[in-house]
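Case 625 in the screening queue. Each case pairs one protein sequence with one candidate compound; here the compound is alpha-D-glucopyranose. For every case the pipeline is the same: read the inputs, emit a complex structure as tokens, and attach any notable structural observations.

Predict complex for case 625.
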Amino acid sequence: MVDDDTTFRLRLDRYGPELLAGLQGAYGDAAPALFERLTGLMRTAFAARPGDLRVLDDARLLTPDWLQKPDTIGYVCYADRFAGSLAGVAERIGHLKSLGVSYLHLMPLLKPREGDSDGGYAVADYRSVDPRLGTMDDLADLAATLRNDGISLVIDLVLNHVAREHEWAARARAGEQTYRDYFHIYPDRTEPDAFERTLPEVFPDFAPGNFTWDDEVQGWVWTTFNSFQWDLNWANPDVFAEFADIVLFLANQGVEVLRLDAIAFIWKELGTDCQNEPPVHDLTQALRAVLRIVAPGVALKAEAIVGPQDLIAYLGQGEHYGKVSDLAYHNSVMVQLWGALASRHTRLFEVALSNFPAKPPSTTWATYARCHDDIGWAIGDADARGAYLEGRSHRAFLSEFYAGDYPGSFARGLVFQHNPVTGDRRISGSLASLAGLEAAIEHDDAGQLADAIARINLLHTFVLGFGGVPLLYMGDEIGMLNDHSYLQDADHAGDNRWVHRPRMDWAEVEAAGANPAGPSGQVLAGLRHTVGVRRRLPQLHAAVESRVLPSPDARVLVLTRDHPEGTLIEVYNFSEDAVELPSYVLHDRLGDVATEQISGYDYSLLPETVRIRPYQPLWLTTRPW
Ligand code: GLC
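Case 625 output:
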């Protein structure tokens, strides 16, 4: 008979060693005592885990690849901007289902500080919900409602920092040493200056430097992001214990995936850029083990917007293989998509993907074209050289292009955080505005309109086809344009990322449904159709990697997904030209005739070339399929 005690003991036997090893990596000799303390926390949380979530745990244990299946579709939105409140979200499930959504990331919804809260990323209380959205009970209710509809609730776990108004920070200011030790606080500039020598700046415009003087605490506080976001001292085991408890609390509300916000930054080491330090992975391993013991239905997603060689470690390399996050954002694909669209050239994309280290097969990329953040041109100099480009000038070109300043640019973006030292100019803007829809409407030009819609469709199709959890960003499904109303809100006006965080235009969703020939209608219908195609293609299971096939035409990217049930070849034309692609690349793998899955048409691969329309994506399999 498997009673609760037996289940807990079995899981502790299985994951206890991973937990201890993770803790030892970060805390050395302090690990065993922390392990004991955590065992107590885990027992309590396990006993409190509601029955329906235990059923979920069992279901997940039976289907460990639940995030990898082709029918996994993600959607990302702000609860208030999407539907007013948490209760409102439940009323919009129909729209989500019409897009095949099975994974819903609601942007920060825990209680933030008042005023500017960096879009909720300055959390004042992890155990209550932003009162404007609802209560913790509402969150648990929503999670259950979504689950009944086959949708997993995803929320942020902000673990690099808390709001200056969080109780821990308040108690540190009140002089409690225990809580001062939760943060990095220095009496003078000696240590901050020593760290600054190797630290980059995340928000050079509105929060220069990485430390903020605080009168009340009488010290320099480490604040990587905004001055009101106090970095936590994860070298303190108490901080780990606090977060383990928070994570279990949120898991027991029914949250199914936790997005580990800014995870790369949590460990500080003098003389480094304080990102991707090895203990970050020890800590993730330990957090995951805690979850696997109490709530194995819950997965972790790393938000590490870092270079490829550093990124892969978040999915587990070396000793951490298979033991850290289940998911990670594929920032590189996002950047390369926009890069290829601007340059009508896919060599750099090919080089970047070919140089990308393989991921552990049990882990999954989150693929996306847009999110709530800006686009930083994370293109490695070596990759650029491999494509006969110079990194800095190519990055400058992309900024200029997407700011709409480059001659002939179709984009309408805004420069975010110009850093004169590095030359970096990141870009804000909605998917549709960056892809040319805003300019096309402004110019009232049918040709430009068709190209813009085709670009949006290409981006969505790529995100659905790369393998992984595709994340659709709210509003993009109807091609929503930049929204400048943020300038009227004092808390948002200084941060132009709000230009691509609009309120959902439900009237336009209806119009799109009613008129599939209009721009929003075409975007929505195209997306829904391709989602349907994706769901039935086993080749899109995320355990399989997309690999580059050298393309005979620089405007076209060719990928192959070699699945035991058959090969899928994906062809993407990143230009407004109709391309005659030499067919041997396809013929070699697919034979004389292939079926194009998006259109349902058969393509003869016997002629010398295959004609690809401007911005057309093709998903080709052998026939019959
Ligand atoms: C992440 C979020 C970003 C936020 C930052 C600080 O990068 O995506 O929006 O500003 O973390 O929390």
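Case 625 observations:
- Residues 546-622 form a domain with the Immunoglobulin-like fold (CATH 2.60.40.1180).
- The mean pLDDT is 97.
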